[in-house]
Amino acid sequence: MGEPGRHKEFNATSAESGDTSRNLWVLAVLAFWISAGVTLAVILTTGKLDLILVSITLGMMVLGVWLKARYQLRQRKARGRVSDGDSV
Fold first, then answer.
1. Any idea where the domains of the chain sit in the sequence?
2. 3-state secondary structure (DSSP) of residue 88
3. pTM given for the model
4. CA torsion, ordered 24, 29, 34, 39, to nearest 10 deg
5. Measuring CA to CA, which of 33, 45, 50, 67 is 20 to 30 A from 15?
6. Residue 24 near residue 69, CB atoms below 8 Å
């Protein structure tokens, strides 16, 4: 009788994993826009380009793109969709 409970527990964990991926992506997007705003504010106030802030902003953008791709891949796997190259 313990088996069905374990199965439900696994499903809940996998659902939480999808939510975690989405939350990480949302945080990365927010961090990107905040860092972009800070970078723009520094550029406007000092008149100089701060390469450290620009690199942080670009890093947040790359992280957001990577997390979005990972999130979409997990969604696709959860739905059981097969890519065009894998169809028989």
1. 23-77
2. coil
3. 0.68
4. 120
5. 33
6. no
Distance (Å) of CA 51 to CA 1, 43, 56, 57, 78: 60, 10, 9, 10, 40
C-alpha 14/C-alpha 86 separation (Å) is: 24
How many alpha carbons lie under 13 Å from residue 41 in its C-beta half-sphere?
Answer: 6
Contacts 24+ apart (CB under 8 A), 40-45: none
The list of the chain residues with pLDDT below 70 reads 1-18, 81-88
Q: Are 22 and 68 in contact (CB under 8 A)?
A: no
3-state DSSP assignment of residue 43: helix
Structure tokens at 59: 């890093």
Residues 29, 63: contact at Cβ < 8 Å? Answer: no
How far is 5 from 29, CA to CA, in rounded Å?
Answer: 36
| Token reading at 17 | 């994993």
